[in-house]
């Protein structure tokens, strides 16, 4: 997830930690990240670029297309072994970028090829594009932006199982994501253990409710002046993030043209809207889904030691521990994006290599 340097973010509108979500990097392009050294002898994977239609996203009030771009990374042996079936990892990108930008940040295909060359078992990796008019869906269920939660958990999984040689069983499906994608992994994972068997959250954003500050009248004025969702392109990067949060967590079909409620009106906080935002915070949700979380074969969480999201990631780890839910938690040297490519190769892929069921 990217940030425009020096940008001031309205604390009131970022009550669930969106302020910390706005980490490092420029707003207009993917972050330049270091990649791990190439692994000698790594065999090439195949990347297929497909479109998946999602009935769950149809009819959303924001006008987001239900036809979503998806990248499918097929392991080296896929073409040569026409009867072999593979586990699948669904990997979710962060806010303000799409799937194509994210594979640049995490150095795919190099990191996937390197993971296999270093001993990770072969699996399919699926990367859906969830960028929206306001730069991100938050993988939530909203009549305004669309039900991206169900897109991932039902429509995308159903399509991949129907068109690729997968092991179509929850124990052979993993869900992972970075930043907003880490939030999506937490949210979807809590609610859909019937679909996925292991979770890996990388620097997850938006885990908790944040203290409120002074309302930013300029931000509220700028958002309320918009006449269509497309007009959000005129806003600053941080303002669009706030708007995306409202579209995902406080939709309102009776409030055109944006069809959402803001947590501030005429400079005053709106407690009912803030409560709706708080209801989407995984740390607040967790108590309701303990039984679901116990069903996972493995849960992983990691975060950089210079990432503003570190404390909340630690709280998620502690909350899981308090319920006796086994989880791996690691704080590694790095900021929000600097270590992610290496983590994909050397930690995330091996994690799923051990956690997923590979069949015979």
* CATH topology descriptor: Rossmann fold
The SS-based structural class is: alpha/beta
The H-level CATH homologous superfamily, spelled out, is Alpha/Beta hydrolase fold, catalytic domain
Query: How confident is the prediction overall: mean pLDDT?
Result: 90
**Poorly predicted parts:** 1-29, 211-215
End-to-end CA span: 38 Å
- Could you name the CATH class? Alpha Beta
Q: Shape from CA axes? A: globular
Topology:
Layout lengths: L17 H4 L24 E8 L13 E8 L13 E5 L6 H7 L4 H8 L6 E5 L12 E2 L3 E2 H16 L9 E6 L1 H12 L6 E5 L14 H8 L12 H13 L14 E2 L2 E2 L1 H8 L3 H4 L4 H4 L4 E7 L5 H13 L5 E5 L7 H16 L5
Parallel strand pairs: 3-4, 3-7, 7-8, 8-11, 11-12
Antiparallel strand pairs: 1-2, 2-4, 5-6, 9-10
Helix pairs in contact: 3-12
Structure description:
By secondary structure, this protein is an alpha/beta fold. The chain has helices spanning 18-21, 99-105, 110-117, 148-163, 180-191, 217-224, 237-249, 271-278, 282-285, 290-293, 310-322, 340-355, and strands spanning 46-53, 67-74, 88-92, 124-128, 141-142, 146-147, 173-178, 198-202, 264-265, 268-269, 298-304, 328-332. It has an 8-stranded mixed β-sheet, sandwiched between helices. Helix content is 31%, strand content 16%. The protein has a single domain, classed as Alpha/Beta hydrolase fold, catalytic domain (Rossmann fold, 3-Layer(aba) Sandwich).
């Amino acid at each position: 997830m990217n940030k425009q340097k020096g940008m001031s973010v309205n604390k009131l509108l970022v009550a669930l930690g969106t302020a910390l979500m706005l980490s490092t990097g420029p707003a207009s392009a993917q972050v330049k990240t270091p990649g791990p050294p190439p692994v000698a002898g790594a065999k090439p994977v195949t990347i297929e670029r497909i479109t998946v239609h999602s009935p769950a996203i149809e009819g959303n009030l924001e006008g987001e297309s239900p036809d979503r771009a998806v990248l499918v990374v097929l392991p080296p042996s896929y073409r040569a072994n026409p009867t072999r079936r593979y586990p699948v990892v669904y990997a979710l990108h962060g806010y303000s970028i799409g799937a194509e930008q994210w594979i640049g940040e995490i150095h795919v295909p190099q990191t996937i090829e390197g993971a296999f060359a270093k001993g990770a078992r072969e699996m399919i990796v699926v990367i859906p594009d969830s960028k929206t008019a306001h730069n991100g869906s938050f993988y939530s269920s909203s009549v305004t932006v669309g039900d991206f939660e169900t897109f991932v958990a039902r429509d995308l999984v159903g399509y991949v199982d129907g068109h690729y040689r997968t092991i179509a069983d929850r124990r052979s499906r993993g869900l992972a994501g970075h930043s907003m994608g880490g939030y999506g992994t937490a949210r979807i994972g809590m609610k859909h253990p019937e679909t996925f068997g292991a979770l890996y959250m990388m620097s997850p954003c938006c885990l908790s409710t944040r203290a409120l500050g002074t309302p930013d009248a300029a931000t509220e004025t700028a958002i309320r002046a918009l006449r269509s969702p497309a007009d959000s392109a005129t806003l600053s990067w941080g303002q669009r993030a706030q708007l995306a949060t409202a579209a995902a967590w406080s939709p309102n079909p009776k409030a055109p043209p944006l069809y959402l409620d803001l947590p501030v009106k005429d400079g005053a906080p709106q407690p009912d809207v803030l409560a709706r935002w708080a209801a989407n915070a995984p740390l607040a949700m967790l108590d309701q889904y303990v039984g679901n979380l116990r069903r996972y074969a493995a849960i992983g969480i990691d975060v950089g030691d210079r990432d503003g999201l570190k404390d909340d990631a630690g709280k998620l780890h502690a909350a899981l521990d308090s319920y006796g839910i086994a989880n791996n938690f690691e704080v590694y040297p790095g900021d929000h994006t600097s270590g992610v490519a290496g983590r994909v190769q050397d930690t995330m892929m091996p994690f799923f290599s051990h956690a997923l069921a590979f069949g015979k």
